[in-house]
Amino acid sequence: MAEAAKRQKTEDGGAKSAAATAAYLKMEEAIDAGAATLEPKRVVNSKSNETVDPFPQLQFRALDAFPTGEDLDAWRPSGQPAAQTLRLGLIYDKDAFAAILGLGKLESLRVDEAQTVPGGSVQIVWRREAPRATVANWTALARESLENREAGGLDALICVGGGTCVDAAKWVAAKLKVHFVCIPSAITVDAFFTGWSGCRVDGCVKYERTKPPDCVCLDLALLGAAPPRVRAAGLCDVLSIATGLSDWVLAENAGRCTPEHKFDPAAAAMARGILQSSISCAASAGRGEPEGLRRLIDALCWEVTLCNQLGHSRPEEGSEHFLCYALEAHAEAGRSYTHAEYIGVSLLVMGTLQGIDVAPLREAYRAAGAHPPAPLPLAAGLTSARRAQGCRTRSSARRRCARLSTTCRSTAPSTGCGTPSPTR
């Protein structure tokens, strides 16, 4: 009897795996079949994206000597004499900044006194640690920086750190309208390349229009030395293409895509290629190898550029971000786990409910080192999400998932823990 039960379980597991594979292949077939109907009137809404966000300049460079004379020339306001000391503002992540200084990099940003560098001199006249992501905190930060600017002026703003840091800095830079340089301490998110900042409002995530950095400085040696847990965590913002695309197809098949978010097979095919490139580089990026990190950065940039061009993020954000936000909003959120760890687990859960094969995603997630060091409060987060959406059982959650998948990027949920973002 035990042997028969084991054999039956194996057969059931094989059937489920085959069904999941078939479901994903069906989605791919739908994307490919759509390529035959790419007449502009069917896929393009000329009013959906009248302004395409700019993309920051990327500089792949060692940051042992920073800034250089070329940097000063780019940062200096028009008409300012070259002999005048550039006044800089700095928003930073305390631990990340300390680790970078320990590597012998960014020494000119260590102290507040004026520093002589090639091509001139710089002085940090205002520095603040990045606060928690709320509009109130950002407003206070911007007010401080504006007061400092009135007292003597800020010529440029620099941020050093991860997603929370760059979101705050983008807000301040947009208010100050100054040259803005971003120095990632690890490739954790796609936020380094976007013109939006994500913040929490009443426990929900809202995206505020800010500005993209003018320049992102990427030191591959520095990024490779980041802690393994965060070194390639940004992979999860590309792996979510798997569930985002599935949601987009579901929405199209259900007739729930808005005119602004109409399904575009060409964009979906591009997103699928970006997803595959990110899976292939996961292990190398997780080990901190320059080639793997560079390809991960490429994938993130391609994803952001695609969404900028479309004017929305349906190809890479869907129900997995909704669940992620529900988990992050839980009392334990934001303390023990990173955003990537929440996204990674959420896309595996939602991908399973969608019926896609999540095995390659799980393997990439683990290879990148982005998996959580301890179990997430998934049950509590799911309970919160179900309660918010009126779900009481697993079957009702599955039905809600199907409905959510068709609407989570088309319209804002009436309740719950996430709002659809514009292009991120």
Q: Explain this structure to me?
A:
With 424 residues, the chain is an alpha/beta fold. The protein has helices at residues 2-34, 40-43, 69-75, 94-102, 135-151, 163-176, 220-224, 228-231, 236-239, 241-253, 265-286, 290-310, 319-329, 339-354, 359-367, 378-389, 394-407; strands at 57-60, 86-92, 115-117, 120-129, 156-161, 179-184, 196-201, 204-209, 215-218. It has a seven-stranded mixed β-sheet. A hairpin with a 2-residue loop joins strand 7 and strand 8. The longest helix is centred in the first third of the chain and has 33 residues, at 2-34.
Summarize the structure.
The protein is α/β, with parallel strands linked by helices and 424 residues long.
Features of this protein?
424 residues, two-stranded antiparallel sheet, 51% helix, seven-stranded mixed sheet, globular, alpha/beta, single chain, 9 strands
